[in-house]
Amino acid sequence: MSEENGAVPAGRSADAPASRTAVVIGGTSGIGAAVAERFAASGTAVIAAGLKAPRPERGPVPGVRTVELDLTRGDELERFIGSLPRLDVLVNAAGAIARGEEYDPAVFARVVEINLTGTMRACVAARALLRDAGGCIVNVASMLSFFGGPRVPAYTSSKGGVSQLTKALAVAWAAEGIRVNAVAPGWIRTPLTAELYDDPATARPIIERTPMRRWGDPADVAGAVAFLCGPDAAFVTGAVLPVDGGYLAA
């Protein structure tokens, strides 16, 4: 497990004190990276843990420390979280998908291990730290938590499981002061969806069904995560918030 340090920003907002710490699992690319950047911009100290991602052209993001982490590698996740002195926010954004291959039981098991079991393991490992800090969790589910994806049975099953896990933990841990919510992104432009939005024949019907007539950006999801982790969501737990431009409603 390797680390790369970013500088801590000088300015911090009133609702994000210097002592607030967030861990974003899957924070080195896609939605997770946008979440990490959003938190850092508000003054939160952020650890982005995930597979090594290419360095952005603009360089390291101030306030974000990157830790290389493989969810499939033994107890690496538990050791990483157990090494932290404090944790206020946990975001589980790691994800895997294998379109057209997930009917293979071995592929199915790997996708579920990363998307669902990895989320559960991170939540359980972080429980004591979050209880001590009065912290919160946001899991990244999917619009496929609500309907089927014929090419991705493992991804669909795992994200449905993330939604239900979120509700179960919200009920179980509310008495400990831990809020647990989820976002359910729709069609977001990330490396996992590149093959879809780069294909006009696939992208066109997606845009046509989406009332807002565009693909979402990772920053759209990051804003919803920031809300769920902030003071305005103090009485929100067990929620699964769609961030999909109206796709589910159409």
Summary?
With 250 residues, the chain is of the alpha/beta class. The chain has seven helices and eight strands. It has one domain (3-241): NAD(P)-binding Rossmann-like Domain (Rossmann fold).
Lay out the secondary structure.
Elements lengths: L2 E2 L16 E5 L4 H12 L3 E6 L13 E5 L7 H7 L6 E4 L12 H29 L2 E5 L12 H21 L5 E7 L8 H4 L2 H10 L8 H12 L10 E4 L7
CA gyration radius, whole angstroms: 17 Å
Distance between the first and last residues' Cα: 44 Å
CATH topology: Rossmann fold
The helical percent reads 25-40%
Textual characterization of the structure:
By secondary structure, the protein is of the alpha/beta class. It has one domain (3-241): Rossmann fold, CATH 3.40.50. It is built from 7 helices and 8 strands, in the order ββαββαβαβαβαααβ. The protein has helices spanning 30-41, 76-82, 105-133, 153-173, 194-197, 200-209, 218-229; strands spanning 3-4, 21-25, 45-50, 64-68, 89-92, 136-140, 179-185, 240-243. The chain has an 8-stranded mixed beta sheet, with helices on both faces. α2 runs parallel beside α3 (105-133). It is globular.
Relevant terms:
globular, 15% strand, 8 strands, 7 helices, eight-stranded mixed sheet, disordered N terminus, Rossmann fold
